Amino acid sequence: MTISASFHYISLLLLINFNLIFSDSVCEFTLSENNKVYNYKLGSPISNYPHGARSEDGFYKVAVNETVLWFQLCDMMIFNHGQPSCLGCEGCGGPSHCGMGCSALVSNNLGGYHVCTSVGNTSSMTIDLIDKRTPHAGVIVKMSSGLPYCSLSVSVICDSNEVQGPLTLNRSGKCDYATQFKHPAGCATIVSAHGKGWGWFVTLLTIILCLFGAYLVVGAVYRYFFLHIRGIDIIPNLEFWASLPHTVQGLFMSLVRRFRGPSEGYRSSYSPVNF
Fold first, then answer.
1. CB neighbour burial string for 122-156, b if at least 16 within 10 angstroms, e if fewer
2. Average pLDDT, stretch 193-204?
3. Do residues 120 and 247 both lie within one domain?
């Protein structure tokens, strides 16, 4: 493998990983309400569904009358079968890769010809609650395309048992579409904001421990490679850390004496003395 080919392969891997990280981040939604935190992660694997709310086929499909909708959540669509074949696919992969350059595509029968319109991209994806009064009901994912401006709204309804749909397709305006389906990924992970989960104290403690670990590693590397110190002495400020337990013990005993008062057999300089 040549250097150029290796560089191209590495760049492709980095691009794929970036797209996965980006798509997962846009598919997360968090809401705090009534001392509870609702976490939705549509792109994260859950039991029996390793791809989260994504379709394992690479796309969802729903057809009503002469209109066909293909879409994928949290990612662009992939077609190993059933690839769309329609006119006007330039905004979603072009004729040879139709449907693989966007996240949602609609085909309408116009005068006997199937004409496609891109209606959504991952970069435009937003998430909100279906019903703000009942956060556990599910979320609605909205995405849109460029010119002409079209959009798709997908309601992911909470169903912890199975996946159902999508079966419906509605259109409002010229090219604003809406569909829905049931999926366990539409169910929020709920944690209490008080007494459970990772509170601010645990988070702060974790940050402090990480910074302390980085300090030890960087200090040890510097002393080993630049000061040529070997053995246990590579630990930065070793004398301070070795004396720290004794220092803490002394402070603790000082506090104990302060709160308990003078110990037995100890007389203050102001105590009365019998001659």
1. beebebebbeeeebebbbbbbbbbeeeebbbbbbb
2. 66
3. no
